[in-house]
Amino acid sequence: MIKPIITAPSYFVGEPSVKYFINVKSIKINQKVVALNTSMLAIDNEGYGGTKISMVNPYKVLETSIYNAVVNTFVKEVANIPRVKPVTPFGACFSSKNIGVTRVGPAVPQIDLVLQSECVYWTMFRANSMVYVSNDVLCLGFVDGGERPMTSIVIGGN
Fold it and tell me: Name one GO cellular component term (predicted).
């Protein structure tokens, strides 16, 4: 006889969330603030918004307007690296032949999540922001989560 393992959390309406949220105030790429609607970074009165850490999602998932702002800023910062056709589910992919390697991963801009102040931030080093999809293609490891998802930013396991 095999005992099934229950992996879904159990909770009741009104109980505190079992999910882990962090308070992101802004996003920086290459030390430059990404222009985005920061009200989406906080959880609103209806429970939408915020930033959640998830080990279920393999990548970072961003609400559409945040995703577009991050991808556009990142692409401007790596303008000298040739883009290639995107590989699903990613929107920004590059020729890995033109990207050097550092001790912390591919030589691309670092991405910082600014937390309660400019002095407190979570750096996503290059190896944690990029995904090798083949020997020749490296993609920004962020996925478009659609418009008005329950959570604006989900930081996945990659």
Answer: extracellular region
